[in-house]
Amino acid sequence: MPTYKDLKYFQKYPLSIKISKTKALIREFYNEMGFSIFVSFSGGKDSTVLLHIVRSMYPETQAVFADTGLEFPEIRNFVKTFENVEILKPTKTYKQVLEEYGYPVISKEVANVIDGARKGQAYRLKRLDPNIKSRFNVSKYAYLMDAPFKISDRCCYHMKKSPIMKYIKKNQSYPIIGTMAEESILRTSAWIRTGCNIVGGNNPRSMLLSFWTEKDIWDYIKLNNLNIAKPYEMGYRRTGCIFCMFGAHLEKSPNRFQLLHKTHPKLWEYSMKDTKENGLGLSYILGYLNIPYCNEIGDERGLNEE
């Protein structure tokens, strides 16, 4: 099995070697899966690079886009410029998921721990114990146990993973995913457990860019003169679900919500509006977390009005 040391070593490869290694992994996965593969395409820069590499080898490869209704309109328009893209829809709305399960805050890992700890799960309660030393300890977020709103990491499952899983089952086709290990501890741990290609078990998949870095992505884009979605030109570093709060506490000003206030004021207004006014109520959540969400004094709503 690969090790963390192996990962750090691979991440230092020059881009040319990473491209060659990635193509070898594509060929391996393609052959192992009986040629039945697809690229999970979000319209972001990482999956744009991934799709370009895969189709440079197998031009007819299907791309699958999970249209959650939470993407930037520019992302949807960008996805439509590509051929052979299957568009999937979730069965629940984002608002329904928030009401039923809770808000995605801090990170998937932390939200999952808080959700489980609130249900009395011993393993997750231990991860909130400041006396237990572990790199998986998240005790600094234990205050969220008392937060006056639901917290969960379930939104990604219902909005994206579930539609893709149904597609996999229906078509007996298996995904190539553009995630990188450097993005989180969970993704690093996943790579150490499995490597890039998982060809057995109940969930075959390939994570070909796991040993790439964000710099590699930008270098590949420049090298191949790739078009990328417009939100990057607007200053966004990420182009996932517009209203996702994962990682927002780490961003410098202007953060994603301050940018949204400037670039898409109507979407910002909807997201910040109280749920009683048919909004998403994010101003209350962001206020509780002490995360700035607007650009001008007087635009604060939710928590600051109480």
Features:
single chain; 306 residues; alpha/beta; Rossmann fold; 2 domains; four-stranded parallel beta sheet; two-stranded parallel sheet; 43% helix; disordered C terminus
Fraction of helical residues: 40-55%
Give the mean pLDDT.
92
Under the CATH scheme, which class of the largest domain?
Alpha Beta
Number of domains: 2
Give the structural class.
alpha/beta
Oligomer: single chain
What order do the SSEs take from the amino end to the carboxyl end, as H and E?
HHEHEHEHEHHHEHEEHEHHH
CATH homologous superfamily identity of the largest domain? HUPs
Estimated radius of gyration: 20 Å
Largest sheet strand order? 3-2-1-5
Overall 3D geometry?
globular
Biggest beta sheet attributes: 4 strands, parallel
* CATH architecture annotation of the largest domain: 3-Layer(aba) Sandwich
Number of separate strands: 8
Tally of individual helices: 13
CATH topology tier name of the largest domain: Rossmann fold
The termini sit apart by 53 Å
Strand content: 5-15%
Polypeptide structure, described:
By secondary structure, this protein is of the alpha/beta class. The protein has two domains: 170 residues, Rossmann fold; 64 residues, no CATH class. 43% of the residues lie in helices and 8% in strands. The strands form three sheets. Strands 3-2-1-5 form a four-stranded parallel sheet, with helices on both faces. It has a two-stranded parallel sheet with strand order 4-8. A hairpin with a 6-residue loop joins strand 6 and strand 7. Helix 11 crosses helix 12. It is globular and about 50 Å long. It starts with a helix and ends in an 18-residue tail after the last helix.
